[in-house]
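Hi everyone,

Forwarding the result from last night's run.
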Amino acid sequence: MKPALTPSAANQENRQAVRNQIRSARRAIPEQTQKQFAQEAASRLMAEINQRQAKHVALYLTSDGELDTQPLIETLWQAGVNVYLPRLHPFSRGNLLFFKYHPTSHLIQNRLKIWEPKLNITEMILPQHLDVIITPLVAFDEQGNRMGMGGGYYDRCLSDWQLRGKPYPIGYAHDCQRVESLPTEHWDVPLPMIVTPSATHTS
């Protein structure tokens, strides 16, 4: 007989099951539909960025069926908004640094096989100087709870955003990544807004 799972272990097992299900669903979206969704979501999110008059916006490069951020990046550049990408902190494990991203930026693959900017201190920005940070996620629920890949990078980065008032976090996801309720942990940072191709969810 298998030993009973502790509440924490059971929660982690539930979270992993949700991750697997949602990642499969978003990878199954046809390429042409992906392109359409990316354009729709970019237009919706740009309306929020313009309303906030944001000039410094951090986001991420997509992989694994995520809602493509490239149309959004190009629209931000055209609007004169400064765009930043995260990279893994070289000395403080589990934390992120943010660097300006422009069309000629040189990118390298990190140990997680994610493309990130080279370490150039002259192009770094502190998180509290960002106006908006667009966060990746695997799943979200009606209460604004966010589930990532389990590394906790964005939860650490956003742990005190409400005290500082910046950067304002906005989740970015396909509609199929929404679930009724997520199993959460005490360190999870809920998002005040999540943008999908068809809706802007606030909590």
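Residues 1-7 have pLDDT under 50 and may be disordered.

Cheers,
N.
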